[in-house]
């Protein structure tokens, strides 16, 4: 059943998780193509964040399969999933407040991930160049030596995106990347996201419909842990089921 | 190893051992109840828990002396007065400690652990200065002395039965407070979602202080009960701390039923093993088993599977 | 900044190390008589534990209340070797079974237990001093960290181990010497460790080993692993989803802390001449945490001063005012949590160093490059 189809980067099939009988995600299937930007929308409690948690291994699935480039992710540890090429950004910015921006990025640099590797890791020119490059992308090049604790909310979000970028994942999962941002920051972030989703697949959870329309290749609408509707933004917006769920609430 | 005993004797031994296990069970339950409230519901590690119990024991000791000196006619009843006073004394100290120390440390559980350890050292020294380094015992009222003969070979000490009755009574009281009172509802609400509880108008700061105070008060009552089966010294509290925490953690921290179930299994395991092995080896094996199981199942016996 | 914190020693670290080396190797030996020097040597064995705790607890957020177990295992391994050497058939000819340690004879043992045999060899003993505690720490670490047990649960379980080991040692007195411990240790390969001269040499060996441990700790602190520990302490999930196997780092640092403690324990046995369960249990284990906290939970050098200061205060106070000592120690636990979360190192960095710098006419800008680390755990 779980044969890899080269047309898809990620194949989620029959994914289910139950918490004491409550199925937060219920027999969910969807497929993500290379270079696609998939946006997941849905009312609160639809299971959006849980889906990302399941894919990246933060929550253990009850049944189903998540196939990424021919590998089954459900049986892998979180760090192995990251090394397979899946990056995850959390809803609330999670950066290392006690470390500088530079150090934050350095820890995400894809080298020296074992105990021995971390002990012998050298901060060579290649590392420094790459960190500066990323810092420019995320508008933080002047703040490299500041502690992350002193950054604004929006800057922390960018930093976390930068920490993912430096790993260069093939699949990037973003949980509400523009939530809590000022209008100006939001605009800058949209610009940033538009740039970084070019050469990879992205799954985004987002509520801002204008933003969604701007970036989405395809949209999946989740409702009570199941797919309610899937397709282009236009199609989804005109789907009577979606209208009922959103307006009926 | 059984060949030396007749069947009758064996039966009696197991019955007595089982009864000893039940007394140990009651002791564990009494020790753990206060902690189950404080650690289980608030997530606060109170390393001075044993010292709050000892305070209750000393209050009982003082009350018994007072009754002996001034009210000898009703001496048989002093214990019930002592229990109430023990609850008030330990509870009041708990409220004070929460106000001075604990409330500043809610977000730093490891620091709470160290600070309360410091508190336990201070209390130990205070007890030693006030009551002396020697252990003190209370005079047990006459009606609690002696044993009840069950059969011609099995007899059970009355003070043991009394402790069991107390443990049952206090467990029921705690159960009703936790699950049937508005305070209990608030405590459980806070332990599940502090921000939300705050938002719906629960005075979380006051509920925390009250919870800590009640937990300490229950510890005081437990200490009071212990005077019926043993003597009290300034450092006696420290002996209980590992057992008590293991009972609560093993039961699954947030579950009252789990605490009682784990107190039961640990006490039975220990008293049965004590029959076959030396006391210290029985203790080592019991602790190792508990720790081993906790390593396999760190969430304890009873827990809810929650959505993160 | 990027390059300076990449070096093993900043100028500030170098000064700190130089001052400590001067104190251990010059000031104390000159200022103290043989008896007091030996006492300070004993205090310094606790510094090993405290330095390990800085790495585990201060940086990694892993609070172990069972460091006494590792200290004790290291110390007992050493003591077993010394005891066997002291129990020659000639020395023990009055026993009913000559040639075995006296406490075994008292407990009606008639032969050396098999697991004591390897400790006839100094080489194996020296390996065991490190290996036994580290393997034990590894087993605990794998079991706990793989299952993501941390924080207070880890603290309670390690404390339970301290209790278990104490009860076990006391209960099995025929094999362990019981509550008295292993006493009456005399020579190391024929070299009388009780002589004044030997004690002085052992003090310097101890100091040397401590400096080695400090350099290792400094290397770890300055490596990427050091920054990872801090990152894990504050945002464990983010580290995990940056592709690190968090558990393996915790296991590593816990084992390293255990190894440090074990070296301290072995040096304790050599300098003090005995090992007993009273050095292993719950109370000494949690006191070791206070050495680290007083020094400053994030400062490896501070940990050494913390161990020295608290133990010195303990000796001076508990001789003359035992009541005061317990009150003082209790107060110290509360104070380092509520008032000085960064301990002596914090006080130094905030109050002493700026004034010192002003005095020396240097600009304040040269100050802490380790500032990134100076916030308490949790």
Automatic annotation (TrEMBL), chain A:
> Which named protein is this?
Urea ABC transporter ATP-binding protein UrtD
Keyword ATP-binding on entry: yes
Q: Which organism is it from?
A: Meridianimarinicoccus aquatilis
Q: Name one GO cellular component term.
A: plasma membrane
Which UniProt key words apply to this protein?
ATP-binding, Nucleotide-binding, Transport
Query: What's the source species' lineage?
Result: Bacteria, Pseudomonadati, Pseudomonadota, Alphaproteobacteria, Rhodobacterales
NCBIfam families tied to this protein: urea_trans_UrtD (TIGR03411)
- The ABC transporter domain sits at 10-249
Q: Name one GO molecular function term.
A: ATP binding
From TrEMBL, chain B:
Q: Where are the transmembrane segments?
A: 12-40, 52-71, 77-97, 158-178, 210-229, 241-263, 275-296
For this protein, the record's NCBIfam families field holds: urea_trans_UrtB (TIGR03409)
Which is a Gene Ontology cellular component entry for this protein?
plasma membrane
Q: Where in the cell is it found?
A: Cell membrane
Arranged from A to Z, the UniProt key words for this protein are: Amino-acid transport, Cell membrane, Membrane, Transmembrane, Transmembrane helix, Transport
User: Which GO terms are recorded in the biological process aspect for this UniProt protein?
Assistant: amino acid transport
* Keyword Oxidoreductase appears in the UniProt entry: no
Question: What topology in the membrane does the UniProt record assign?
Answer: Multi-pass membrane protein
Q: Which organism is it from?
A: Meridianimarinicoccus aquatilis
Chief location: membrane
Check the record and name the CDD domains matching this protein.
Answer: TM_PBP1_LivH_like
* UniProt name for this protein: Urea ABC transporter permease subunit UrtB
**Per the record's keyword annotation, is Plastid included, yes or no?**
no
UniProtKB/TrEMBL annotation, chain C:
Task: State where it is primarily located.
Answer: membrane
> Which keywords has UniProt assigned to this entry?
Cell membrane, Membrane, Transmembrane, Transmembrane helix
Lineage at the top is:
Bacteria, Pseudomonadati, Pseudomonadota, Alphaproteobacteria, Rhodobacterales
The protein's GO terms of the molecular function aspect are:
branched-chain amino acid transmembrane transporter activity
Q: Where in or outside the cell?
A: Cell membrane
Q: Where are the transmembrane segments?
A: 14-32, 44-66, 122-145, 152-171, 201-220, 241-268, 288-312, 324-349
Membrane topology per the entry is: Multi-pass membrane protein
Superkingdom to which the source organism belongs: Bacteria
Q: Which Pfam families match?
A: BPD_transp_2
Against CDD domains, the record matches this protein to: TM_PBP1_LivM_like
Output this protein's name: Urea ABC transporter permease subunit UrtC
Any one GO CC term of the record: plasma membrane
